[in-house]
Amino acid sequence: MADLRFTNFSFFLVLFASLLVAASCRGHSRNALFIFGGSWNDVGNNNYMETAIKANFLPYGETFFKNATGRASNGRLVPDFIAGFAKLPLIPPYLSPDNNEFTNGLNYASAGAGALTETNVGMTIGLKTQLSFFKFTKKHLDVKLGEAKTKTLLSRALYMFSIGSSDYITFATHKKTELPSYAREEYVKMVIGNLTDAIQVINMSW
Ligand SMILES: *[C@@H]1O[C@H](CO)[C@@H](O)[C@H](O)[C@H]1NC(C)=O
Ligand SMILES: *[C@@H]1O[C@H](CO)[C@@H](O)[C@H](O)[C@H]1NC(C)=O
């Protein structure tokens, strides 16, 4: 198991074709940050899952947090810096029991996640499930703030994605995916198609 875990992480940290998309609205200051994706963006969701894909041990976290937080980094991740630049607090993981203050946004990213449901299935929160968590958050916001304020909040928020590397790794290694028999072009189209769908779902959610 330790070997598997290590192999996964050395892969995750390599620069594979990954995608950072910031879809947001015209010129307003950002009041909230909603974060999706894999290990580059996971700030601790996998800590709350039964999975071998975890970064909850040192030296992860040792330079900034002085402890392992679940981030696959010794320090902060890009969403942490973006939150800082936007003068927001660190955006907590969705699965954390301490995520009660979610009017600044939430982080749904899960190390190992892909745009395709089949990628690392059962070991991570795939993009579709991340979107369903986002929809739960919207419902909670509707109750907490009212629908009009929620609409404003969501339309001015910043949405970050970093996903795709695990889809391509699993395809390239023909492991841990139930979709190994596609042609490359077809597979890439499915990855991009599912990511595009996700962005559209978010775009239509306010
Ligand atoms: C460090 O992290 C471990 C595991 O997540 C936790 O059990 C421990 O309480 C943490 N220590 C501090 C000082 O936060
Ligand atoms: C999304 O991925 C699934 C496989 O998980 C695939 O069957 C489907 O065609 C993809 N959707 C798009 C729009 O490409």
UniProtKB/TrEMBL annotation:
It comes from the Eukaryota. This is Uncharacterized protein. It comes from Populus alba.
